[in-house]
Amino acid sequence: MPKTLKFISKIFAIFAIIFATSCSDDDDFSPVVIESITSDHFYPGEDVILTGRNFDDVLFTFLENNQVPFQLEGDSIIFMLPESSAIGNTLLTLVMADGYTVTADIEVVARPFPIIQAVSPNIAEEGAQVTITGTSLNNLISVTIGEVEASVVSSTATELIVTVPAGLAQNVPTELKVVTNGGEAVPTLPFYVGTNLLLNGDLELGSGDDFNNWGKWNGGDGMTATTASGEAYYGRSLRAEAAGGNPWNTQFVSDPAPTEVGSEYTLFMYIKAQPGTPGDGGNIRFSTNPDALYSGNYDITGEWQQIEWSFVANTTQTRAVLDLGVVAGAVYFVDNITLIKTGTPPPPPINTNGSFEDSDLGAADNIAGWGGLNGNLVSGEITDVHSHDGDKSLKLTINDIGANPWDIQPTSSMTVVDGETYHLSVWFKGNGITNIKIAIDQGGDPGWLEWAAPEQGFLDNEWTEISYDFTADTTNSSDGNARFAISMSYSGNVGGVIYIDDLEVTPAQ
Fold first, then answer.
1. Which residue, among 454, 450, 458, has the nearest Cα to 490 in the 3D structure?
2. Is the distance from CB of 481 to CB of 413 less than 8 angstroms?
3. Omega before 121 cis (within 30°)?
4. pTM of the model
5. Better-predicted residue by pLDDT, 250 or 348
6. DSSP per-residue string spanning 53-92
7. Which structural domains are found in the chain, ordered by start?
8. Residue 231 — left, alpha, or beta (φ > 0 → left; ψ -120 to 50 → alpha)?
9. 12 — pLDDT class (breaks 50, 70, 90)
10. Which pLDDT score is estimated for 420?
11. Mean pLDDT within 154-181
12. For residue 41, how many other CB atoms are within 10 A of its CB?
């Protein structure tokens, strides 16, 4: 028969139920019988389906005292459980003519809250697929990454596969969120959009206990592959039993990854320890190879955690090294090892030999990239006694040459672009000097046209920095050259000693 919707006002329906008799006196009476209900419990918003006999006689349906619309399809009554339904046992009442009613109990339960157990890989490029595992991931509404909706490739209650959307920031933690009609869930460990510089960082590739693109440099017998529940974060993970004694006694090492000298990189991984093993994991560290750099030590717990370390690359090919050998017998589980670039090096200085490292010790008048006005550099020398950074600095001894700041002026030239802004930084240390002034001008004739010339005092025998920005004006310079001159004021004619180091002029950021 055609579908029908049958309604009655709440007041009239309640009145009818209260004063109804439990059956009809009609000799032709055919009882309404509920033979089955599709489930023993229902979620708010879910369809309830009753099957039975003589449903043609049903006029109204009620949940407790609230009327709900229904559809009649053959031998079935279908209605939607309201989203506002109270959690717990609920009385269902079918109302027929003459106040005849049939009742049944149904259980309303809260929709299961989605739980994310793992996301792998934990870093993926735009257009790449990411697998999300967990529970109650069905009844899916959306998956978003960085508040941008991701397309869903496949969906079950325990696994989602999605595609990373376009236009997201690279190499920074990005929120991944799963929304179902039971709630919202985000992973406990961070997700990144970008490129993992380590091959097979998720450790899925390999056979037996070997991992493609990874080596076991020390303690190899204690490093195996595991897929066991409770051990693997996702799919295939590393199980490592520490050899003990030194961090390097157990080393899991990546293939070389391309890196840029001077740029910052961040290395991170998921790790947990096996409870009950010595130290419950103790601690581990990261390092690099070659030209080793070392992180601090990390305490490991029995729960999955992400540990990370940032470093500045010192080679063009860098291996990531996991030093796991500190506590003998400690057992670790490791997955999703990732290396990303998180910073670029500052632009190189446009001046020459501002660190004085390219000069011979003791040189007085032949310092690479430098010259002098007035007092020249006859009283200067390159020394390794004091330095702000590196091994060398320029030492000036000032004696009885007058009280004018310009009576001795070490100078250096550089090429600038008209209208561009630059940043100057230089460090001083010494005694007997009251103020330092750095004048930057257009260079050459017709003389000084200073773009900036702050004067700064400093304490004796403490390294002090002068830094400021200036904008180049090469109006009167035929070749775009500029120069800076360091001028010093000191107390009377008693003279003083000054050390100059790490003078850099770079394009302003």
1. 458
2. yes
3. yes
4. 0.58
5. 250
6. E-GGG--EEEETTEEE--EEETTEEEEEPPTTPPSEEEEE
7. 10-108 (2.60.40.10), 115-193 (2.60.40.10), 214-343 (2.60.120.260), 371-507 (2.60.120.260)
8. alpha
9. very low
10. 85
11. 93
12. 11
